[in-house]
Amino acid sequence: MNLRIALAGNPNSGKTTLFNALTGSNQFVGNWPGVTVEKKEGKLKKHNDVVITDLPGIYSLSPYTLEEVVARNYLITERPDAILNIIDGTNLERNLYLTTQLTELGIPVVVAINMMDVVKKNGDRINTEELSHELGCKVVEISALKGTGIMEAAEAAIDAAKNGKTVPMHTFSGTVEHALAHIEEAAVHNMPEEQQRWYAVKIFERDDKVLEQIQLDQAVLDHIEADIKAVEDELDDDAESIITNERYVYIGQIIKGCYRKRSAGRLSTSDKIDKVVTNRFAALPIFAAVMFLVYYIAVSTVGTFATDWANDGVFGDGWHLFGIGTSAYEDAVTDYAAENVWTDEMISAVDAAAGMGVIGAEEIQSAIADEDFGAFDGAYGSYADALAEGGYDISEIYEAALGEEAEGVPDPSEYGVWVPGIPVLVEKGLEAANCPEWLNGLILDGIIGGVGAVLGFVPQMLVLFILLAFLESCGYMARIAFVLDRIFRKFGLSGKSFIPMLIGTGCGVPGIMASRTIENERDRRMTIMTTTFIPCGAKLPIIALIASALFGGAWWVAPSAYFIGIAAIIISGIMLKKTKMFAGDPAPFVMELPAYHWPTVGNVLRSMWERAWSFIKKAGTIILLSSIVIWAGSCFGTMDGAFTFSTEMELENSVLGMIGSALCWIFSPLGFGNIKATVATVMGLVAKEEVVGVFGVLDFEGMTRLAAYSFLVFNLLCAPCFAAIGAIKREMNSAKWTWFAIGYQCVFAYAISLMIYQFGSIFTGDLNVIGLIAAIAVLAGMMYMLFIKRYSEAKKLTKRVKVTK
Ligand SMILES: Nc1nc2c(ncn2[C@@H]2O[C@H](COP(=O)(O)OP(=O)(O)OP(=O)(O)O)[C@@H](O)[C@H]2O)c(=O)[nH]1
Ligand SMILES: [Mg+2]
Fold it and tell me: How does it sit in the membrane (predicted)?
């Protein structure tokens, strides 16, 4: 028979870290309370018959929030064979409160004092033997992070499950015990003996969930009520507080006997750091700078370098091994281009086109001026057609110098060891195998084009995920919840809404689930609706693609996406709070600030890999399938009046093109009413990476920068992917609310993009009067909601509670 061991303890005490170590799982760990919101099971290593359950953290067995209910229900209704109670050794007093309750459940308990590495470093001492004696259960010392003592702890729990019994050692004061005895006698005497005490205490506390569960007769209830009242009168307090107080008095006594603290009164390093990073004035600028750096490093520097290599090398023509020979080759190419490609004829055509304002001409012009062949080639690929349409055809010169017939073009393999890219290799293979043309197209354009375009962004994503994992596990992000609480609160939002956003930076699905830590139903709904405004990992490729293809990798594009996300949340928060649906005070924000600590390299890498791997898996499944569908959609269509298949199909005549052109009017006021952008946006509902996949398959077409930015913002803010919509549905638990959330997101995204494009057009000179009037109307509406409309019935809440260790 399987033994079931539950890991229970306060939030942020290290349960999930221990769970991962014991079972070899990869559950998310972060340095703030409320990371785990769902129970998770895993088999204990080397013990196939032992199942360990990781539970959300709880402070007591009286739950307030949804994830606490999950933990309590598991312990009470499923009754595991043993409880391994994880305690944060640096904060014994608060952690033992739950322990006193757990030992009353009648389930064997083993206490594992975690964070012993920190306790020892501080020079504090815990007498475990004495503690074990006082609590009536086995006590072991562990460090889940370092992995010390964890197997012993698990084995102690197995042992307890097999033949242990935990009898609570604590007795309340005489009058309370008297009442408890009465309750046991009157209400729960037919329950198993070891469970009676816990139920009696809960009935004494008038816990509505327990009273609902056991359904007592009115006569019995009245009798019990009289007993409770008598105690309350005698001790002059309400029943619940009496129990709580007596528990704390008891814990105080225990601690006196078995805990020696050395580091009293000193300001810890954590406090010193907090003085700076949570400083009233400096906190926000510091946060902005940190997030700016994170996105800048990931998208514009280290990450780009690797992504360029992946996109142009592995999924492109090829690359020089170890980069040896690259610069010599580039010099040779530049020399060659200066002589043969950038002829006077081409330069004057490009200059003339730029003078006429033809799209993309300026990009080509500046690439030539910089003598940057890579930039030139990219811009040529995107805009050559636009130039030709404007009457400045430069393709002849290009083809003559670089086409297949051209001679004397530098060969990269002469400058170093040249590793050909995957498409080149596959193409050769397909040619050798004499593949039919359609299969060629399917594999090269459909699969490698689509999936490769997405996978090429993995390096950037890895960099982003490493940086986020570091910030999350060292404890900085938990501070930001507080810092933002200061601002959020002014608008009736709680800092707690930040935690889901934080997780949503990886993926929106767990982000939406993290909203369970918010007690207040209205605030929770609002958080669910706005969490996906934060760019998730899958939106990163869209940001990176647009930043590099249209903005030449400009430094501000990627960070701006993150700040637009935050701004969207705040603006939505203010507007929604003013409606009847969401009015009301935000709940006071109580969260414990964990001490800073250095995360282990292993943990950071694991967290990064976990997120990246789910992305890669998605590329191999959903993205693969939809790339094939898109490729097929762009090859089937009408040609010469008949419906056929052809790899030469013009986009306008293809099935995809027809669908796109039927819908693209929707987006023309936003500046990107072309077929590709429309198809990309619609496919983004399947998975956000697909937006990039579509451009990979359909090849990037020239858009103005303004239109591209508007496109980017719309795709960042509009309805999330199907997976996230599913999560919204589960957490809202209502179809009506789900549709409302999706509708709101789309309308909001539309409004913002409309303003960006229409107001931007004033400066680029493509002003459209009707569009501008619409944008002004939207702006006026928003301004009214933001600044003029009053909060209905809600007052601003000024109370802010902060609990620190
Ligand atoms: N120094 C030290 N840190 C630890 C130890 N165990 C866990 N941590 C850190 O404590 C933080 C919280 O760990 P988690 O495992 O997420 O805690 P949890 O109990 O699952 O938290 P919730 O899911 O919020 O209830 C993380 O930053 C861990 O790296 C330990 O033994 N020593
Ligand atoms: Mg956890």
Answer: Multi-pass membrane protein
